[in-house]
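Hey, can you fold this?
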Amino acid sequence: MRDERVKWAFLLPAVGWILTFTVYPLVYSLTLSFQDWNLTSPPRWVGFANYLRALQDPRMHNALRITGFFVAATVTVELVFGFALALVFHRPIWGSRALRAVVVAPLFTSPIALAFLGMMLFHEEDGPIAHLLRMLGLPRVHWLSDPATALGSLILLDVWQWTPFAFLVFLAGLTGVPQEPIEAAIVDGAGRWAVLRHVLLPLLAPVAVTTILFKFIYSVKVFDLAFGLTGGGPGISTEVLALYIHRQGLEFFNLGYASALSYVFLVLVVLGCTVLLLRVRRLYEVA
């Protein structure tokens, strides 16, 4: 009996924390998503009106399109660059420890700090990139004030910060790869490209799946980098879905609609993860 009481005494704080800060907010926000509440009047039950509004909201469609492009671009580029860096550092090179520290450093930067750093780097008049372009005689680029380049600037910063994550995961995967299949392929006359494509990549497929899944989840919910660097502008050209939900809830105070948007977002993320896992698994089986 004493052991049982001790066990529950240790479990109750964790259970209380989960119920208070996870279960209750989920249930409350789900209830709120069926109501119309903007802090100026009492909550009013509207059923699925908020969800129908979300499906017909052109600004929500724009935010979803921008988020999808951001996710596809960042995950693809970071996966390729991370794998290439892992191949380079897997070989013994001089000063590899110091170089690894330099490569991994952006991963430990706060997204908001990185956003302010990006504002300095991409400053169109006095930024170091603008100064370098003037020295080379190249035309000025409107990095953050042009809708055609603002999203690209956001993607560049995210790639700089999160490529080290893919690099570390792939480097750990390369360290654990057995050498026997690679040596057997080389003995059979396979070239470097054939070994990479038909031996090394299939062996690293589980590592790639893990990297893609983690980076997909992070990229799809990006908020702080867009909020700090562009604020969703110019216009709404970099307004990702998480930023749009934030504006509806904490700027326009449409709390019911923001809750509905959040659950639509949750369903899309779950479906996206499921489809992604199925496709990657199919590619892995084919490989």
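Oh, and this one too while you're at it.
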Amino acid sequence: MSARVIDGRDAARRVRERVAEGCAAFRERHGRPPGLVGIQVGDDPASEIYQRNKAQQAEECGMAVERMKLPGGTSQAEMDALLDRLAADPAVDGMLVQLPVPDPLTEPAIAARIEPTKDVDGFSPVNIGHLVRGEPCLRPCTPSGVMWLLDDAGVDLEGASAVVVGRSLIVGKPQAMMLLERNATVTIAHSRTKDLAAICREADVLVVAVGRPEMVRGDWVKPGATVIDVGMNRLDDRLCGDVHYDEVAQVAGALTP
């Protein structure tokens, strides 16, 4: 058998269409487009690409986007002052700080300072707390995208056995909370998990986000399972995920490339 492909590109296109509709409605209601500020510190090439792509897609959806680039060596006090100024600016509806940030800045200090109602990434302790409590909040985008894909693919999460491989604050932990919220029975696995392959084979829904090229093999997957590969890894000749696609496609019921 060959797994049904869950087409993330088509799903992303439809999400952007919905966002554009929301931006148009916002403009009609408030007389201005929603305002987004992206903050980058230093000259990391990957951060530059991420920030540029985010800004481009947000502008195409109808947002007013401002990119702010701060020099490496920016102090925490300077960052705090900027975040406070943006929090008080009524034209700024959302902001995000591109991670990772160079020393002496730290992600926990930034997350604690950012205004929760404008915290696009959903990393502030307030938003994480609301997520754990199952309350409305701004939520991290990658696990939210995974949930959107699962719903769009018609995957029934009620009572399903779900395994999340990875325990990061960006994906793994919030992913587990979102699946638990939908009444899945959730296991979080990670680098210290004993017999990781056996744990993965129990999953009706397997979400992999560890940053290890093609780690999950075909014999790690329960026949008919839904597999969401969050990983993005660069090899010498190509990009690949955390799942060995060709092998898993012969076992899974549905699979993201």
